[in-house]
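[#protein-structures] MJ: dropping Phospholipid-transporting ATPase here for a structure pass
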Amino acid sequence: PASTWEVRANDRNYHMQFKKKFAFCLTKRKYGGNAIKTAKYNIFTFLPLNLYEQFHRMANVYFVFVILLQTFPEISTLPWYTLLFPLSCLLIIRGLRDLIDDIGRHQSDRNINNRPCEILSGKSFCWQKWRDICVGDIVRLRKDSFVPADMLLLCSSEPSSLCYVETADIDGETNLKFRQALLVTHQELVSEESMAAFDGRVTCEDPNSRMHSFTGTLEWRGESYSLDSERILLRGCRLRNTDLCYGLVIYAGFDSKIMRNCGKIKRKKTKLDRLMDRLVIIIFLVLLVTSLCLAVASGFWAKMFQEKHSYLSALYKHTTPAQQAFFNFWGFMILLSIIIPMSMYITFEFIYLVNSCFINWDLEMYYAAKDIPAKARSTSLNDQLGQIEYIFSDKTGTLTQNVMSFKKCCINGTIYGPGTDHEKKQPLVRMTWSHHREKKLDFCDAMLLEAARQDNDPVLREFLRLLALCHTVMVEEKGDQLVYQAASPDEEALVLAAKNLGYVFLARTQDTITISELGVKRTYKVLAMLDFNSDRKRMSVLVREPQGTIRLYTKGADTVILERLQRRGPRETFTEMALDRFAEETLRTLCLASKEVSEAEYKVWSRRHHEASILLQDRAQELEKLYEEMEQNLQLLGATAIEDKLQDGVPETIQLLKLGNIKVWVLTGDKQ
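AK: finished. structure tokens for Phospholipid-transporting ATPase:
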């Protein structure tokens, strides 16, 4: 189909038959292979393409023009080849530099395309290379291996077919993110035989560059299952903390999302390059005008000279003053052509080379902790660095340590945490309800601990329950310790805070979350997870409590939570003041709210939610409307404040950048 991308498991022949037309009635396969090519040149195109790029520099065009003038004996001042030699040296130096860079790209492509992987062939997996992967193949991945193509996660060796991935090569984030297979594939695909017999059909959007979104459906055994980005492993991710996982290849090679984001390698032209081109044009125009004036003057002088010295007329019988002026014009062009010296450009190239070596050798740019020196990947890097005027930076993890600690909270109109009026210095507290020993308590407020222990305040109970339920953290039990894996350090800090206060997150499956509330184990059925994104600025979880009540728990930025409250009373006003106070202390704030949902309301909403979740067109917009409907008339529970300290040397670095006249902008947060 032209409008959608259809993938059939274990059916290479189906994907081979589709062609798409492009220029001159030629065709190529719709479903491309997995081999990639990021190099600019090959053995045939290097010379013409590189020369074409080099002659985009006006100076090179100017030098060729001067050499062409020198080929005419009537106006030549030097043999033409004496000028061709330095120009050739300049072109060769730049060409070699580009060639070395491109050979590096070829080597990188070769290494990536020849990486080994296990592909299902017949009824067993066999080792092949990345370049052999096709759309529709089932691939087995092992711990610490890279994902070779965009794949639908079918199952893994972890409970509930979870899969932990590191996306550092895609977005620089070192926190582990989790992906989870569909319940049906997790339960059914349990052996190599069942994998070989799998004949599911994925219908999804055409290949695109949107890294954080995916819309599709899996049709198998007469049923349709909704697919989103949480089920997809992207090319370039790395498998962590997961021994084995299996995936169905959806997009391969240049159709994968990371390759769609790469784009073509374009020749970069710095502001200085453009300025030099403009200067060459201006100098050339000045040269033209100067030569023209001198030529006209020489014509008048020749006319006067011939009239005055008529006895020399035999020497000038073949040339008129006008002809002499014409030849003199080109002669002056050659004589004055050194106004743009070729040697300056050759000197530039050597200066760039030496400066790039200085960057590599700079001990002050050597990071001893990881034994990493600075590496200039381009010889002209120094030239480019000197032209930077603005730096746009993220805050979290870039300027800060990305190590979050729960510092303060405001619950039901009361602020808890260090610096509050009722805070007392307290020795290390051991909770009688905790079955899992904690090495330390990041957050310790005696009054809050006592309130949590007594369990008399329903708002405090709901607040702590929300911290333990409304998140995407995964848990693993090692000995008597619970180890949390969180995609976001904020979430881990909140879950640890709830644990310290007696609400311990114990386990999660595809559709349940188990927590211990002051020593009593309770299992909540997850009815829906309303995901966080940068537009919504909030996340919610809809759960059925053990006694049957349905509740919605929501946490998010104050700007979006406060406008969705059922009422705004004194308690809400006080919480807003507390949020401002936390923000002034440079703490990261979140608002927490909840509401009870009736059975009738849930049934209607659930049916519409299922219909929207299997749409191929406008799925995100329809789900957004449903989330918006559900997240109304909330009751505010309180607010949290988390500290994320700056990395060492950030203030000094910003000060040095400002001394270099570089303007630093920090783009972050959910408020202008």
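MJ: nice. The first helix runs from residue 12 to 16.
AK: one more thing. The mean pLDDT is 86.
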